[in-house]
Amino acid sequence: MLISKYHQPVTVRDFYEKGRDLLGLELLAGEQSLSVRIQEIAINRPGLALAGFFNYFAFRRIQVMGLAEYSYLLSLSPDERVMRLESFFGGKIPCVVIARNKRAFPEILKLAQAHAVPVFRTRMVTKDFVNAATILLENLTAPRVKAQGTMIEFMGIGVLIEGKPGMGKSETALGLIRKGAALVSDDVTVLRVDSAGSLIGSPVNVTRYHMEIRGIGIIHVPSLFGVASVREEKKLDLVATLCEPGPRADEDRSNTLGRTKELLGVRVPQVLIPVAPGRDLANVIETAALDQRLRRLGHDAAKELDEKLMALMTGTSAGSE
Prior knowledge:
Blueprint: E1 2-7, H1 12-22, E2 26-29, E3 43-44, H2 47-50, E4 62-65, H3 67-75, H4 78-89, E5 96-98, H5 106-114, E6 119-121, H6 126-141, E7 143-148, E8 150-154, E9 157-162, H7 169-178, E10 182-185, E11 188-193, E12 199-203, E13 210-213, E14 217-220, H8 221-225, E15 234-235, E16 238-243, H9 247-250, E17 260-263, E18 266-274, H10 281-296, H11 301-314
Parallel strand pairs: 3-4, 4-5, 5-6, 9-16, 16-18
Antiparallel strand pairs: 1-7, 2-6, 7-11, 8-9, 8-10, 11-12, 12-15, 13-14, 17-18
Helix pairs in contact: 1-6, 4-5, 7-10
């Protein structure tokens, strides 16, 4: 069940927190201004602006100073450098990143504080940084949808367990965690499409690492099961829908129809799991996840059995011409 669809506004703080390790970002100045919003999701190299040409200056974008921009500033006299940088920082830019681990000019740090502009440094080569930062920004601003369900990762397979309230989603996930699975999110899962076209699931920030178990209350999963029992995010590979026994659950018992569910334009394999007293749902979903892993490797048990039965009924041996 989908709750809402939305676009995530991105601030410099979001960019820094998500890219600190990925991009090797080091904050040099402007810590008090990290809440500034990045209005255009792209990277700009401000060579022309530093040279004094501000027509068509993409001031709404993250500004990256590479070797060319740094060498140009180094060639200027101190007074000329201050004048160029004053005009540059006065353009209401969201932040500046200095590539190749170059030392920041004192004028840059001073003007950054005066204009409340965060300044970062990275060891990455400019070209590599621009490519990686662009992908990061696209992921941060991708359309998102909140889905009612608990998501876990088991044996490398991301599974979203959905169903009506009271069907036992969290209890089933808890049973899987005891078997070695890792919790991604409980009750509400945020889904987005990454740059590769895959659905990525993550938790709502306020409930991250927590689960609500009926009769017990709120538990902190890594405190009980260790840090390996949680994931920050995971690709969604399978939707397990808990449902009541009936025609809907029986219409494709062997799963030969290849049932899928569409989320944000991406189709994900889906299995319907009837809930009945005494049924071990954790065991069933564990098996469904392992079966999905086999399907990804090209082995379809239902199709294989169907071919054997057809061969038996037609009087031919399976695999013969």
